Amino acid sequence: MSAVITQAKEDKESSRIIKYDVNYSYEVEGETYKGRGTVYHRVKIGDEDTITVYRTSKGKYKIEPIDSPIEILIATIGAVLCIFILVAMTVGRILEKRDKEKNEESDNKIIKGRSQRENSK
Fold first, then answer.
1. Could you tell me if 48 and 3 are in contact, meaning their C-beta atoms sit under 8 angstroms apart?
2. Which burial class, exposed, middle or buried, applies to 49 when counting CB atoms under 10 A from its CB (0-12, 13-18, 19+)?
3. Which residues touch 55 (CB under 8 Å, ≥6 apart)?
4. Which of 8, 88, 103, 111 lies 20 to 30 A from 28 at CA?
């Protein structure tokens, strides 16, 4: 959903991250709502921004809270870690299966060799 920025104040706490505390004005089903949010890119009054809203139990619409960059980073690291563990487990199972098949083949060769020697006697 699109919302118009009605007020933007740069948060100068961190010199590394561009952060603005903004007020939005947005319209849902013909009714205009106002809300607050945080954006991590340069904005000015009158800019349009994409937001996500949800309906409260009272039937009003509110802006869904935006996660901080730290929360996003933690979630991303968690997802990458889960994928790594999944790949490691899959590779482990494949190697385990391959070793088992090799052991069975070598056992079969040994048994065939013994039976051929016994048959030749």
1. yes
2. middle
3. 61
4. 8
The answer to whether 51 and 1 are in contact (CB under 8 A) is: yes
SS3 content of the chain, % helix, strand, coil (to 5): 45, 30, 25
Query: What confidence tens digit (pLDDT) does each residue in 37-51 have?
Result: 888 888 999 999 888
* Residue positions counted in the chain: 121
Query: 0.85 exceeded by the pTM?
Result: no
The backbone torsions φ and ψ at residue 90, rounded to the nearest 5 degrees and listed phi first, read -65, -45
The mean of the pLDDT values for the chain is 84
Q: Could you tell me the pLDDT band of residue 114, with boundaries at 50, 70 and 90?
A: low
Cβ-Cβ contacts under 8 Å for 46 (sequence gap 6 or more): 4, 5
